[in-house]
Amino acid sequence: MIAEGRTGLLVPPRDPRALAEAVQSLLDDPARRAAMAAAAPSWVAQFTWSAVVDRVEETYRAVVV
After folding, report:
1. What is the rounded average pLDDT of the residues 8-21?
2. Where are the domains of the chain?
């Protein structure tokens, strides 16, 4: 549930070098780190059960009508 570059960083699986570089890039850039941390709560809110249920119900209603 990551928006690449906005709420976090994605790295390839089983790639410790890429993980280390991603972590280091955030350690080196406190402003970027803070911006990602600030953006994360509103981003993840769209994945709560109630939000997902609302979207599914909207879809069903659109199909049924």
Report:
1. 98
2. 16-64
